[in-house]
Amino acid sequence: MDNLYLIKIGEISLKKGNRSRFEKQLRFNIKKKLRKPSRITIQKGRFFLETDESDIKNIQYALSTTPGLVGFTRAVKVKKNIEDIKTAALDFANELAISYPAGTFKIESRRADKGFKYTSYEISSLIGEYLLDSIPSLKVDVHNPDWTISIEIRDLAYIYGAQEKGTGGLPVGSAGKGMLLLSGGIDSPVAGYLMAKRGLRMDAVYFHAYPYTSDDALLKVKSLAEKIAPYLSGLSLFVVSFTDFQLLLKQKAREEEITLLMRAGMVKIAELISKNRGNICLVTGESLSQVASQTVESIRYTGSETDLTIFRPLIGMDKEDIIKIAKSIDTFETSILPFEDCCTIFSPKHPLVTPDREKLKKSFILLEGENLLKEAAEKAERIYFKP
User: Fold this and answer.
1) 177-385: which CATH topology?
2) Is it true that domain 3-165 has CATH number 3.40.720.10?
3) Mean pLDDT over residues 10-21, rounded?
């Protein structure tokens, strides 16, 4: 196979007895993203990906968006012969010297095979001396080098240069399956991303209130789903027609209760779809006290309308923290496009911020909207986004 990548794992290495299950899931998630035949082998905390995939950018994107790995780098493997190692290291050095002319470097060696002739220190010294002789403009700096070449002695000798940062966390699919309530805002895509890093596989549900919300709003959410799908190892988005239930709220609900009753309706629909999909939890982008529907009392009420556990990974984060992550996963610019979602429809001027839970539960029952919610769930349109 043409291309070799060394992949470093982080948290998986702490799993001990059931580590193999996490490794198997990570291997599956990586291979799922590559278009060409690939092989992954595991050696003491390292994954080695060999692939016929020729599109380097696609390989790097696939690895950088796969939770469970903390870093990766293009590598070469040669026989455990010091001359072969020198040649491979020089090839990497020539590439790196183009970006850092007259730069400083360091050699890091790791001898996993203790039967190899040279110690780690001796390997670094021999290779460093060879590079200095071959490229006179180079200088050694073991504390703050411009670039580093790493050498690992295992079944073979593996040589690699600069490392790319991975997502970290755990492999998607290693912690069950849930349903993300995806709006067109900044928060919910970030919530999905963070739960994917904890190993949760997810579907997503979006509530569309045509004609009160535009087709542009729907396209915006589809774009967000497409952007987070790689991190989620693929994503099924369920588009729910929510107009009838919102008209019912406008007709029968007290104005100040509309926002919370609407949120309760969303939770109910998400629960109905989840039970048909085998999802055992919900995920929302709620952040404590960010808006009126996210006070302690409001969250307590909306959470009471489902038997499913609700995860709120942003609950203690401020907006700047959330925006920083949104920018890093390329969802921020899409999220701020000026197309309103259904949450703004019939929004009261003075919503409840400290609601009485039992009173609201009675108000929800008096709506008599159960059939509308079931029908909306049954008629939801499913759109799949590849990883």
Assistant:
1) Rossmann fold (3.40.50)
2) no
3) 86
Q: How far apart are CA 229 and CA 133, in angstroms?
A: 48
Q: Which of 248, 246, 258, 163 is nearest to 212 (CA)?
A: 246
Whole-angstrom Cα distance, residue 294 to residue 281? Answer: 19
pLDDT in tens, 35-84: 888 999 988 778 999 998 888 899 999 999 999 999 999 999 999 999 99
Residues 182 and 204: beta-carbon distance below 8 Å: yes
Q: pLDDT tens for residues 351-371?
A: 888 989 999 999 999 999 999
3-class DSSP state for residue 166?
Answer: coil
The first and second tokens of residue 32, run together, are 């799922």
Neighbouring residues of 362: CB distance < 8 A, sequence distance ≥ 6: none
**Residue 345 in contact with residue 226, Cβ under 8 Å?**
no
CA 269 to chain centre: 25
What is the C-alpha separation between 80 and 92, in angstroms, rounded?
17
Q: Where in the chain is the domain with CATH 3.30.2130.30?
A: 3-165
Question: 125-161: b or e for each residue (b if 16 or more CB lie within 10 Å)?
Answer: ebbbebbeeebeebeeeeeebbbbbbbbbbebbbbbb
Residue intervals of the chain classified under CATH 3.40.50.620 are 177-385
According to DSSP, the β-strands at 164-165 and 69-78 are antiparallel
Question: Is omega for the bond preceding 211 within 30 degrees of 0, making it cis?
Answer: yes
Residues 6+ apart with CB under 8 A from 190: 285, 313, 314, 322, 325, 326, 329, 331
